[in-house]
Amino acid sequence: MTYKELKQRALESCFERANNMQKKAIFKVRGAVLIIAGAGSGKTTVLVNRIANMTRFGNAFHDDEERNISPEEERFLADFPDMEKTPENIAKLADIIAVNPVNPWNILAITFTNKAAGELRERLSAMLGEDAEKINASTFHSACVKILRREIEKLGFRAGFTIYDDDDSKRLLREIMKNRGIDEKRIAPKVFKNNISRLKDRMISAEDYAKEAAESAEFIEQKTAEIYADYQKSLASANAVDFDDIIYLTVKLFENFPDVLSHYRNLYKYIMVDEYQDTNFAQYRLVSLLAGDNGNLCVVGDDDQSIYRFRGATIENILNFEKEYRNCEVIRLEQNYRSTTNILDAANSVIKNNSNRKEKRLWSELGEGDKIKVLKYQNELGEGKGVADIIAKGVENGARYSDYAILYRSNALSRTFETALSRSSIPYKIVGGLRFYDRKEIKDILSYLALLNNPYDAIRFRRVINEPKRGIGDATIDEIIRISEGLGISPLDVCRDAGRYETLSRKTNALKAAANIFDELDELSDTMRLDELIDAVVEKSGYAQMLKALGDEGAARMENVNELKSNALELLKEQPDAALPDFLEQAALQSDIDNYDAETDRVSLMTMHSAKGLEFPEVFLVAAEDNVFPSIMSINSPAELEEERRLAYVAITRAKKKLYITHTGYRMLYGHTSANKLSTFVREIPERYCEKADDKPQSSFVKGMSFAKPVQKSFLKEQSEKMHTTHPVHTAAGESFSAGDRVRHKIFGEGTVVNVKPVGKDAIITIDFDTKGTKPVMQNNARMEKL
To answer: Which of 56, 204, 431, 538 is least crowded, fewest Cβ atoms below 10 Å from its Cβ?
Structure first.
C-alpha cells in the first residue's frame, strides 16, 4: 500500500463508527462546507469528530504529499487500524501523518443554545482533554459577549455593561411609552419590543429607521421609530444592552473598526456554525465578516427544520449558501439514528410537499416499527383523557413517565392535558413555562448583583431600591433617575448625596440608608466568592427577613434563592476564576430549553417549537386539526404554510419508537367551539404508515385499550354545557347551520362549517371550503345549502 493509502486507512479507523457521509464531513477541513444534517443524523458527533481531526491531524486525509517514513513507522501505520485507540497511539499517529494541525484557539464553534454548547464542550473534553478548553465552543450571544467585554468602549459604552432580558426591556419600554403618552392597553409594549427586535435583526439602526418611518403614513411605524430612538438612548444612559444588541453591536464593531475585525479573523481561522437554518440577517452578517477571505467556514443545518421565521430567522441563508460560496462542498447526512422507518417515512411524506427546500430523504436501519396511531376523540376533554389513559397503561407495562412527550402548536392547548394528567395522578412538567431566572425573587437578587456590577442600570435600580420596602415611592424613584440622567451620574450616586437635591430632601435618610447597603456589598464583593456574595445580598438587603415573614410561600421562594447559589457554585466548579460579570452573563443568556432535565421522571408538555433538539420514545402530536395546526393564519399564506409544515416535520421526528396523532370532532379553544378537519399535514401521510381509531368501542385497534372506551358521561355533560356556540342558526331562507355541517356554497363550492358566531340579528358562519380555504360568510346573505 502507498503511504497515502496507509494514512487514510489509519485515519478512517480513528472514526470507524461514523458512516461514509459522516466521515466525508469529518475529513473536509479547508474551505467552505455545507453539511445538510437531517433530524437525528448524528450531527453533534460529526462536529466533535471534525474538530478532533482538525486539531490532531489537520488536512492529513486529503494531503497528497508522499512522505519518506521509516520501516517502523510504516509498520505502525499498517497495524494501526487493529490497535486500541489509546491517547498514546493516537498521538504517535499524529506525529507521523499530521499536516498543519489547527490550533484549538483558532476554532470558533457556534451553536444556538447553551444546552447544545455545553454538550459540545463536554464531548470535546472527553475526546481532547485539556485542548478542549482552548476551543471557543459557545452560542452566538456568548461568543459576542466575550468580544464586547473587551471592545465595547470603542462603541461609547463603559466597561461592565448590563444585559437586559426580555422582561427588563419591556419595563423600559413601558416607561418610555408612559412618557410619550401611549396607552399600553391600546398598544402592548411587546409590539414595540418585537418591532425593534426585528429591526436589529436586519441591522437597521434607530436613525435609519426614523428616515424610513418619516416617509410612511402608518401610525405604528412612526411610533416605533420614536420609541426605538428613546429606547436606545435609555439603554446607553443605563450602560445596558438588550439581547438583540449583543449581535447587532458586534457586527457594528466589526464594520466600523477594521483593526478589530482583523484581530478576530486572525484568531478564529476556522468557523463552524450549527443550526444555520435558524440564523437571521445579523447573525449571517457576523459569520460572513468573521469568515472573510479565509473561507474556512463550515455550516451545519437542515432547511426542513427552519421554524423560527417569526423570530427573524432567514431560511435563505442556508438555501443560498452554495451561491455565496461557489466552491463549497455539500455533504448530506440522511441516515437517522433516532426513529423507526414508519416515523421517518411519514415525516418524509409531509415535508416533500414544501417547494422551498433542498432535496433529502431520511432513512434508518432501526426497523419498520409501530405504525403511527391517528386517534379521533369526540372533543378536547376526551382527547386529554385518552392521552392520559395511554400513558397510564404504558407505565403499568414498564414504561417511564419521562418516555412520553405531549406536543402542541400553542400553549393555549396545554390546559386540557394538564387537567387530565392531574386527574390520573400522572406527574408532568411544562417545558418552556416560567423560567427559573424569571421568578421574582431571582430577578430581585440578580438586580442587586447587577447594580454592583453596573451602578448606572436604571431599570434594575428601579426594581430593588424599594424591595424590601424602604419607604421610597415611585415619584421619588422617578426624580432620582431624572437627576442621574441629567447629570450623567448613577442613581446610587444621587442617593448617596440626596441631601444636595431639594426635591429629595424629605427622603434623605431612607435614600442614604439604601445606598449604604450597596456600598457595603460592593466592598464585600472584592473578597467574597459568588455564592457568599449572594448570601450577603439576601441578608444585608433585608430580603431574607422579608421572605421569612411570608411563611410557607417565603420558604419556597428562599429555596429558589438557594438554587441560585447552587448555580453560582456550579459555575465556579466549571470556571474557578469566574467573577460577578461571568455569573450575570450566564444568567442573562439562559434560554427555556437550557433548563430541560431529561432525568426527571415526568411527562413532558411543550410546544412543538420548544421540542426542537429533543427526542422521546413516545410522542403525542395533539390537536392535529386544520385551523389549529396548521394555524388559521397560515392556511392562506404559502410561506407561512411551508413554515408550519416544517414544524410538523420537527414534531414528527422527535419520536423514537411510537407516534400518536390526536384530533377531535369538536374543540373548544379561545372561547369558541369549532369542528375542524384532520390536519392537512396528517392527510399528507400515506395510510400505509398509519393505524386509525376513534373513541368508539367497536374499533379493532383500540379493543381492550383504555382510550378506546366511550368518553365518560361526566366529560360529555361538561362538554355539552360548554358548546354554547354550536347551536344551529337559521338563514333568511330558514335553513339552519351548526359547526360540523357539510354545505355547498354557490360561489365557493363545498365545505365544512367550522364556527357559528351570532352578531346581533345576524351571524358569521366560518366555513372551511374544500378548494377555496377558510372564509367567513354572513348568515342572512349565505347563498348555500346543507348537504
So the answer is: 204
